Amino acid sequence: MQRNKGPEKNKATSAADVARLAGVSRSAVSRTFTDGASVSAKTREKVLAAAAELNYHVNHLARSISKEQSRPVCLLAANLDKPYHNLLLDALTKQLQQDGRIVMVINASSEPSSAEEAMRRALHYRASASVVMSGTPPQELVQACVDSGQKVIMINCNDDIENVHHIQIDYADAMQQAVTLFQQAGCQALSLVSSTKGTPSLLAREQFFISAAQAKGFEVTIWRGDNTNYEDGQQAAQALLSDHQPNHAYFCITDLVACGFMDTARHEFNLSIPDDISILGFDDIPQSAWQAYQLTTFAQPYQGIANRVSDILGEQQEADLTSRLNAIPKQRNSLHKEKREKS
């Protein structure tokens, strides 16, 4: 018996091609690949054999594009070369894929114009939700996304944008803990190594750290670099350590900055950590636990953020629009050890 022809080479295999090869109806193919649908064992066997021969796979996106859960979730990300953004993106994509959602990453810069363009793309792609990992798009564009039926979730962004979900870190509590750790280590003066970038999360850390330090009677010297990279930490150390005094401690706004600061302190100023200076970081990037650093830091709740995004997307009714999560202190060996043990 002459077999039915398969599809032409380089042409995507369709359900109709499988039906022809198997000698069944198009609806029989559809029922075979639909959970719970009625189809005889003989028909199922023929359809699966034909599908295997033709390397056919069901296009779930095309099949259920009208369903909210099948529409993509757009992650608007920036600075993906930095460990913090890598770790957050990893947690988000794993969780959303585990939830059975389609994830689309739009790589944008943190500039408002770039965030605006990224949100316009999310509108064009008919996304079910947009998760803004950094940057602050215009209020009007955010509202346009909400009006189109999208959920908009903003992580560590300005909370003055209305009608969207905000996930924020409780920096007030974390910075109080940071100052307490310095106090317990016997530190008498503090320096804040920060950045002129002025993102909402950086500004919050700055403001709450300074407030907590002043409340405990500390003087705070502030140094700001252009960015939050390793090189900025090096520059800060060169500027601040030339007249370093005993019992002076340094809070670096990110772990990358702290790593640059620590290497310069050791290699250019021959200072021992933690014997000569105490240092804190923020983010708990993998490098902070390396033997070369053993940096005391605060871990961002990456999985907690991902879980909250998952919960928001699964909610049928609107819950609280603002969620606050706690950063987790990770005590290692960059604070003055002897004084810390006596406290």
Query: If helices are DSSP runs of H or I spanning 4 or more residues, what is the number of helices?
Result: 13
Radius of gyration: 27 Å
CATH topology of the largest domain: Rossmann fold
- How many extended strands? 12
Element-level helix/strand string:
HHHHEHEHEHEEHEHEHEHEEHEEH
Low-confidence stretches: 339-343
**Biggest beta-sheet profile:** 6 strands, parallel
Give the strand line-up of the largest sheet.
Answer: 2-1-3-4-5-11
Beta-strand residue percentage: 15-25%
Helix content estimate? 40-55%
What's the rounded overall pLDDT mean? 84
Per the principal axes of the C-alpha atoms, what is the gross shape?
Answer: elongated
Report a brief summary of the structure.
The chain has helices at residues 15-22, 26-32, 41-54, 60-63, 83-98, 112-124, 139-147, 171-184, 200-215, 230-240, 255-269, 302-314, 337-342, and strands at residues 73-77, 103-107, 129-132, 151-155, 165-169, 189-195, 220-225, 248-252, 278-280, 297-299, 322-325, 328-330. Mean pLDDT is 84; it is low at 339-343. It is of the alpha/beta class and 343 residues long.
